[in-house]
Every structure is written in C-alpha cells, then in structure tokens.
Design a protein that fits this description.
Elements (H helix, E strand, L loop, with lengths): L1 H17 L33 E2 L12 E8 L11 E3 L2 E6 L3 E6 L5 E5 L21 E3 L2 E5 L4 E6 L5 E6 L14 E3 L2 E4 L11 E6 L5 E6 L14 H8 L9 H4 L1 E2 L6 E4 L4 E5 L3 E2 L3 H4 L12 E6 L5 E6 L14 E6 L8 E6 L5 E6 L5 E6 L6 E4 L5 E3 L10 E3 L13 E3 L4 E8 L2 E3 L28 H9 L2 E8 L4 E7 L8 E4 L3 E5 L4 E6 L5 E6 L9 E5 L2 E8 L3 H6 L1 H4 L9 E7 L25 H14 L1 H4 L21 H8 L18 H18 L2
Helix pairs in contact: 8-11, 10-11
Bound molecules: calcium ion.
Length: about 700
C-alpha cells in the first residue's frame, strides 16, 4: 500500500517535470528537464548536466550589447574553477581553499562569506591546486566539499554551518575539489588523491543530518576483505579478479577516485559516476602480477540511487597506464539513435583518453567511441568499445611521447550540450607528454606516487629553442561535436591549451572564457565569434546564466590557477594575464568597468651565485622534477600561482633552504617538509639546480 503511494508520487513528479513546469523548490530543487531556466540550481544546470540554458533574452542578434553589470573580488590568486549557483536572487560561488561566497546576484554586493578554515598544509596533498568547483543546494542548505575531506551543510540565508562530517581518512592524501550533488534527500560526494595514492569511492549522506547512507568503493579492498559497503557485491563478482595479488596498488590504494562527475539520472533512478585513474599510474608497478583490467578505474559506473548498488559499468581505458580518468563531464541527453531514428536516452562523455563516448543510459550498452582529438596511444576501438592500443604506449625504461598526455584531451573544464543544435561543445586541448618508468619508484618514496619519471624529456640545459618547441606543442580548441554523425561540426583553434568551461544557450550562443582573459560568445551553429570582452584575468571556470526581474545575466569567475598552471609554468612565464579571483557579471546595455588588477612585482634576478658540479646539477634536476615540479613548475619555471623558486631569496641561504625544504618551516603556507623523500645532499642539489636555472633565464 505504502509502496504504491510512493510510486504514484514519483509518477506525478515525472509528469510535472516532463510537462516543462519548473519544479517547486520544496518538491525538487532542480528541474530534471534537460535545460536550465531562470535559476542555476545545480553544478551542471539541471540533473542532466547539459549546461544548456533555455533563456533567450541574450541572443545572436543582441549579444554585442553585453556590458559589465558588476564585479566581485574573490580575494585569491589561486585556482578558481567554480560554477556559481543562483537561487532566489543570490549567487553562491566557491573559491580557492573551499571558501564560499554569497553575493547579491543583481548588484554583486557581498552578503556573507563562509571560510571552513582549512589548515594550509593540506595544500601539499592537492595534485591540482586548492580549487573548488561548486556547491549543491536543497531546502535552504548549501552543501560544500572542503579540500581537507570534510562535507558541510551551510545555511543559505546566514552562512552559518549546520553540520560537518569528515568523509575521508585524513591521515591519507585525500582531497575534495568537486561539487556535491543532491539526489532526493541525500547529498553525494567523492574525492581525489590518486596521484599521491588513495582508494577511491563515492558516498551518500542524509541532507538533514549528515549521516552516511551508502558508500561505493570503485576498486577492491587492498586487504582482500569486504568493506560492509554498497560495493561489496560488485567488487566480489566483477572487480577483485581484475587485479593481481601483489603490487603497489595494495600500498597506494589503487586509485579510482570520483573527483568530478556524479550525475543523477532521474528517468532511470540511478547515479552515474565518472571514475579516475589507477594509483600509481604505471600499471606494471601498480599490478605487476596481474593482466586484468583493474576495474573500476577509468570507468563510467551506474549505481542504484537509493542503495548505491551496482547497475552497470563501461571502462573507457582498461588497465589505465596514463592517468586517463573517466571523471570528465557526464551529460545525459536524448539522441535519435533508436529504431527508425527514435530518441534514445544516452550518456555522453569526452574523457581524457581522447574518445567521445555515447552509451545507453539505462543499460550502459556501448553505442560509439570516436576520437575527438589527435592520439598516439590507440588506433581505434573494437566492436565492444575496447581501445585498440598502440603497444609502444605502454612505456617502459625509455621515454615514449604519449598523446593525449596525463592532462588529457579534455580535463575538468565542463563540456556543454545543446538539445537545439544537437552538438556537444568540448573545451579540448592537446598536451603530449614523454613518459617512462620511474626507476627510483620502489626504493625512494615521493609525495606524488605515479611510477612515471617526471624528468623525462628534460635536461639541465634547456635552450630557448627547446622551450619554444615545448610551448608550441601545446594546443587548445573548442570543438562542436556531433555525437550522431560522430564528427566535429566546427572547431575554433585557440592560442593555447587549458581554456575555460562552456555554457550553451537557447539564444543560439556558446560562451567560453580563455586563459588570455577573453570571454567569447560563439554562434552555436557555426562557431563564428560574435562578441569578445577581456576580463583582465585568465579564465578557466565555466560561465552560467540566470534571469531576474526580466533581465538575463551572464556570469563567470576568473582566476586560472589549477593543474596546468602548476604543471606547465613555462607556458605562462608572464605571457598571460594574472590569476586573479573575481566574479564578473554581464547584462545587456550595462556600462560597468573591470578594475585594473593590482599585482605584486617579483624581481626576476638570481639571489645567489651559481654553484654545483655537473653531477650535482643533474641530481638536482631529477629530485626537483620528482618532488617540486608539480607545484613550482617543470624546469624551475613557475606560472606565478605558487612561488617561482628561481627568484626566491631563500636560495641564498643554505641553512634556511634546508629548514624550508626538509623541515617544513613554511608548512603553514602549504610548503610541507620533504625529509622523508630527500636527503640534505638532495636538497642542496635542488638548490644548485634552481640557482643555475635562475642565472640561465634571468633578464
Ligand atoms: Ca589523475
């Protein structure tokens, strides 16, 4: 009796939603329909996460009249990846260190700021900057994932904390950067950390109390026992046998972190998650005795929404070896792929590995996989969607250039899909990387635990021509991908990689920000640029749009930081506008101005005389590449998000250098000590190398 009443209520809700009525927030805070309306209520706009807006007041014919309505300072120079939510006239935007800002969406006035007070030493666990991608919303509560592994409920009106739970083992290098998602009366959150060594999972908590409702681990328990979790059955039946008995996965957790995409498929009442890379990356070190696929790393997995029980999975990169996460934007859409062109509900994803996937949403059946970006690691897929690998891509002792590289053909920058054009808009890039086995992996611990040699392809002397060639190899583009024709409709080539996430609108427009600070509106059908405005700071985050009092607004956060900025400082090196955290909002006819950024000046001169034997410099390069480069930039060139060590006065004082590098004197700034990884001689070799680089590149 009770059961049928629930079913009836469910049917009524579905009928309401399919009739196109915006659901009342008391009933359901996020319209299940594909497109977003006047408010932006969840990370991807709606449950289907298409990042497509129904709003049309800003359109092809008037987009050139957009002007600055207001700006808001996020007061950070670290990475900003936020998708702001807009509800009842208030914008909720997150910033670096998981700080949450409530802003009047009409005026840009600050309403309140919630700072979870993260210990800055946690920054050393963050592979890809201390970023945050956004919050979730239900019944007057905002849900915030905190970089140190907390999940918190914040009162949307007052900014006061209502509950807080720790979702990870904080003794391990877990982080949270992703946006939680609300599913019914639960809030779902995953985590990151597979570069350093963790075991991935997704958890569902009660929205009112913070009590754990279910958890699904994506890889087997390293101790070989059940967890008493929702994943036990699927791991025992499908995953455990795909991992060998020994290897680094048992120490490092195996990876498979769910750090971004968690999508509620309301039609099939299931949650679809994107699962990350293996830990360590190098499959021969991770699982030397096995030949299995290492389920469920690099997979798309569907779970029952109420229980977290396994429904289906599709692995994009079996036995991943390259950091090819399948965590990228998951979009649910209806495409004419059924019998006689009937609409079929599908899952769309363009993960790091460079193939664009179309799967049946209900069953996970493989429909197609087509390269959307140049690749060397595979030549195609077989009839079941399994990649046909280039054997050389499974790198060993000698370096192999792999494309896409570990930063992927598409990373976290959200993709959009327009049901009107039928196109997916992919913020794609081309970032090849030489990869070979890290010979020191077994004998010497590193904070980053990939089993890949990060000095690969680098030398102590990097002539200007070599740097120029490295820079030229990195490309970026916006691709309008037709998932039915399995080909691009149009492509816009950018000046470089790592440009912002995408918004599509029923006004026939596609918006994307770029690292050079340009926010651009493209014609959704042709890719023709129709409007550009430079925001005086680089953009990585995706734009959103909303409507208040009959006016449509367009909003985006600036501040590029993030993985590529830390990992490829040489690409920046003063050539792009600053990483300045700010929300900039536009509307038609507005005439506001963006304030001039105030920048600290860095004196680009060596602070110590050059020293060191060739052997010491070579050792310095290797230790620097293994331990320092992922934050301070390869070949000792920083993008400026974190200090450029070449110009640091600490290099002039060997004692102070050792205190910082080994003893962690600046741990409260995020620079933890490396005494476990480095000897005093190693630390001094790094100083010699950094000072050498300063003399070679000054002026
Ligand atoms: Ca990764």
């Amino acid at each position: 009796m009770r059961r049928s009443a629930i079913t009836l209520a469910g049917c009524a809700l579905l009928a309401l939603l399919s009739a196109g009525v915006t659901a009342d927030s008391a009933l359901d805070p996020m319209a299940a329909k594909g497109s977003a309306g006047a408010e932006w209520l969840t990370y991807g706009g709606t449950y289907d996460e298409q990042r497509h807006s129904r709003l049309t007041r800003i359109n092809r014919s008037n987009v050139q009249e957009l002007g600055v309505a207001w700006t808001y300072e996020l007061k950070t120079g670290r990475g900003v990846e936020t998708t702001p939510l807009i509800h009842k006239g208030v914008m909720y935007a997150t910033s670096a260190w998981s700080v949450l800002h409530a802003i009047d969406a009409r005026t840009g006035r600050e309403l309140w700021v919630y700072d979870p007070g993260v210990d800055r030493a946690v920054g050393a666990k963050a592979c890809c900057d201390v970023v945050n991608r956004g919050v979730a919303l239900k019944d007057g509560l905002l849900f915030l994932g905190v970089i140190d592994g907390r999940l918190e409920a914040i009162d949307a009106r007052t900014g006061k904390r209502r509950w807080s739970v720790v979702t990870v083992d904080q003794s391990k290098p877990y982080t949270i950067t992703g946006a939680p998602r609300v599913v019914k009366d639960m809030v779902l959150i995953g985590n990151g950390g597979a570069e350093l060594g963790v075991r991935g999972y997704v958890s569902a908590y009660d929205t009112r109390t913070g009590r754990l409702r279910w958890r699904f681990y994506t890889v087997p328990n390293p101790e070989g026992r059940p967890d008493g979790a929702a994943s036990d059955e699927a791991l025992a039946r499908l995953a455990n046998a795909s991992w060998g008995p020994g290897g680094a996965w048992r120490r490092d957790g195996g990876g498979g972190t769910v750090w971004d995409s968690i999508v509620y498929d309301a039609v099939n009442d299931q949650v679809i998650i994107g699962v990350g890379n293996g830990s360590p990356w190098n499959a021969e070190l991770r699982d030397p005795n096995g030949r299995g696929d290492n389920l469920f790393i690099s997979s798309i997995v569907a779970l029952d929404a109420d229980t977290g029980a396994y429904r289906w999975h599709f692995q994009t990169t079996p036995r991943d070896n390259w950091d090819f996460t399948a965590t990228q934007t998951i979009i649910l859409a209806a495409l004419p792929l059924g019998e006689g062109g009937a609409l079929r509900r599908v899952v769309l994803q363009a993960p790091k590995n460079g193939f664009f996937y179309v799967l049946d949403a209900r069953t996970g059946e493989f429909l197609s996989a087509t390269p959307f970006s140049p690749m060397t690691w595979a030549t195609g897929v077989d009839s079941k969607g399994r990649p046909i690998e280039n054997p050389e891509a499974r790198y060993r002792e000698t370096a192999t250039v792999v494309l896409p590289g570990p930063l992927g053909a598409h990373n976290w920058h959200p993709m959009a899909f327009s049901p009107e054009t039928g196109l997916a808009y992919i913020p794609a890039h081309e970032l090849p990387q030489p990869m070979n086995r890290d010979g020191k992996f077994e004998t010497q611990p590193a904070a980053w635990n990939t089993g890949v040699d990060f000095a690969s392809g680098l030398a102590v002397e990097m002539p200007a021509a070599a740097m120029k060639a490295m820079k030229a190899a990195l490309k970026g583009r916006l691709i309008a991908w037709d998932p039915v024709a399995r080909a691009p409709r149009w492509t816009v080539e950018h000046e470089g990689p790592w440009n912002g996430g995408v918004l599509s609108t029923a006004g026939g427009l596609v918006f994307q920000g770029k690292l050079n600070g340009d926010l651009v509106a493209y014609d959704a059908e042709t890719g023709r640029p129709l409007w550009t405005h430079n925001l005086r700071a680089g953009i990585a985050a995706p734009p959103v749009t909303y409507e208040l009092d009959g006016e449509q607004y367009l909003s985006v956060a600036t501040g590029w930081g993030t993985a590529f900025a830390l990992a490829a400082g040489f690409w920046f090196d003063g050539s792009v506008p600053p990483a300045l955290g700010r929300v900039v909002t536009f509307k038609l006819g507005a005439k506001g101005r963006i304030p001039e950024p105030e920048l600290p000046m860095v004196e680009r001169t060596p602070k110590a005389p050059a020293f060191g034997t060739p052997a010491q410099l070579e050792a310095g390069l290797v230790h620097y590449s293994r331990n320092c480069a992922v934050c301070h930039g390869p070949v000792a060139i920083s993008s400026g998000v974190l200090p450029d060590l070449r110009w640091s006065s600490t290099t002039a004082d060997p004692g102070l250098w050792a205190d910082v590098v080994l003893k962690g004197m600046l741990a409260s700034n995020g620079m933890v000590g490396f005494a476990r990884q480095l000897s005093p001689a190693d630390a001094e070799a790094i100083r010699a190398y950094v000072v050498h680089r300063a003399h070679k590149t000054a002026g």
